[in-house]
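Our consortium's second objective concerns turning raw sequence data into structural hypotheses that experimental partners can test. To show how far this objective has progressed, the report includes one record in full. It was chosen at random from the queue rather than selected for favorable results. The single chain below, 286 residues long, was entered without modification.
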Amino acid sequence: MLNPENRAIVFAHYDRQDRVDPYVYFYLRELRKICRTLVFVSTAKLIKKDLDELGLIGCEVILRENIGYDFMSYKLGLESLECTAYDEIVICNDSVYGPFFDLENIFSKMDSRFCDFWGMTSNTDISYHLQSYFVVFKKNVLDSIAFRDFWEAVKALDSKREIIKCYEVGMTQCLLKSGLKSATSADYNPTLSARLIYLSKRFSVSKIRQKTGALFQGENIIPKINATHSFWKELILQGNMPFIKVEPLRDNPMEVDIDDYEKVIRSISSYDVSLIKNHLSRVVDK
């Protein structure tokens, strides 16, 4: 098993009210257990109290201008490290609540998997890619020219969709094209049939097209679904997923059934769900 002393983590943070929320502090403390170096990159104007608390946790803090979304935070965090000195580097962000259980168990499992980089979940929107809220690069990637060249080319883009296309999708595709192998940890992958059943229960055909960007070929439908939204429950209960995304609980753009999220989390974890409820009470538009 990989020694955590050989692991670095770059954490991207944003808060519209310039705070480090208690759910983020919990996440950081869990991350600190499994790494030698934890770089916290924030676009918020943090007060001294938060900076002091981050220091007590053991974070190396970088404050930056709020441009370029998480990939610019990842880039600056990686630039602060001597990447080849580590056996493993993680990029992750505050777009999830959790973890609901010890992350080291997941790292132990993935250490034995035949892969060079891995994520908690993947998506096929635009093209196959690991979702960038949590991605782990092993030594082969850190030593590769493809990894270095990709991050050197990252620049601040204004469009979130362009960032997803160029950087989230682009990163996975760049590494795959260089011969590196990817994997995912949360192993629940809904079948086409399950996706269609889910969609047909909730939406008309026109609504499916609008909501998912589904491709239609005659009578056939190829739905594009973000499993972290539409199958959040199955990921947690069946896929060993240690997180739930903030977005479906805060904004619920896919109109998923989230009413029992507290019950689901409590069924598999002692995680304090008040961290979620308190954060939502602060950020959900009334």
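The partners drew two points from this record. The chain is about 45% helix and 15% strand. The chain has two domains: 4-184, 192-283. Both points have been shared with the crystallography group to help prioritize constructs.
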